[in-house]
């Protein structure tokens, strides 16, 4: 297992991603003083986004079915826990976009190569605490 997002498992047979990009931002407040440059103080955490990208070869790896399952999960609009294969818990995320590029089509129009990008954005931790998901995820990795 490379990563799990809610009920969807990223692995070689489903959607093996080759790249994970994690962007975090923080918002700052600038405190102006009379004879110096302003000092920045952290106001609060900003956006937290993860982008997974990779290439599928449906004859070898996952394909249309895996993409459909992930897209169906995105349609729920619910945040799900995102955990990587070594047990790092990223938090609760929603899917904001799924982009695909199909190429090397056969005579029936079926792609032999599918490039994909999945964009996720972190949600409020309150949802995780409400359902005890963080605790359940930790228990799964201890066993």
N→C terminal distance: 15 Å
Largest sheet descriptor: 7 strands, antiparallel
Order of helices and strands: EEEEHEEEHH
By DSSP (H or I, 4+ residues per run), the number of helices equals 3
Provide mean pLDDT, rounded.
Answer: 83
Biggest β-sheet: strands ordered side by side in the sheet: 2-1-5-6-7-4-3
Secondary-structure-based class equals: alpha+beta
Query: Low-confidence spans: pLDDT under 50, at least 5 residues?
Result: 134-143
Number of strands: 7
Q: Give the number of domains.
A: 1
Strand content: over 45%
Alpha carbon gyration radius? 19 Å
**Which descriptor suits the 3D outline?**
elongated
How much helicity do the residues have? 10-25%
Mind explaining what this structure looks like?
- This protein has 143 residues and is an alpha+beta fold.
- The protein has one domain.
- It contains three helices and seven strands; from the N terminus they run E-E-E-E-H-E-E-E-H-H.
- The chain has helices at 64-75, 126-131, 133-142, and strands at residues 3-5, 8-10, 19-33, 36-56, 80-84, 89-105, 111-122.
- Strands 2-1-5-6-7-4-3 form a seven-stranded antiparallel beta sheet.
- The radius of gyration is 19 Å and the shape is elongated.
- InterPro entries: Myoviridae_GpU (IPR009734), Phage_P2_GpU (IPR016912).
- This is Tail fiber protein.
- Pfam families: Phage_P2_GpU.
């Amino acid at each position: 297992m490379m990563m799990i997002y809610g009920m969807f498992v990223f692995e070689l047979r489903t959607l093996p991603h080759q790249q994970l990009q994690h962007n975090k931002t923080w918002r700052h407040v600038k405190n102006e003083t009379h004879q110096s440059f302003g000092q920045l103080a952290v106001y609060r955490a900003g956006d937290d986004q993860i982008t997974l990208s990779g290439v599928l070869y449906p004859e070898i790896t996952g394909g249309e079915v895996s993409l459909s399952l992930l897209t169906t999960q995105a349609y729920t609009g619910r945040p799900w826990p995102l955990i990587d294969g070594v047990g790092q818990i990223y938090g609760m995320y929603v899917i904001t976009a799924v982009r695909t590029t199909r190429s090397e089509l056969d005579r029936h129009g079926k792609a032999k190569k599918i490039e994909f990008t999945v964009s996720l954005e972190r949600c409020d931790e309150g949802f995780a605490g409400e359902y005890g998901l963080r605790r359940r995820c930790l228990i799964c990795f201890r066993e």
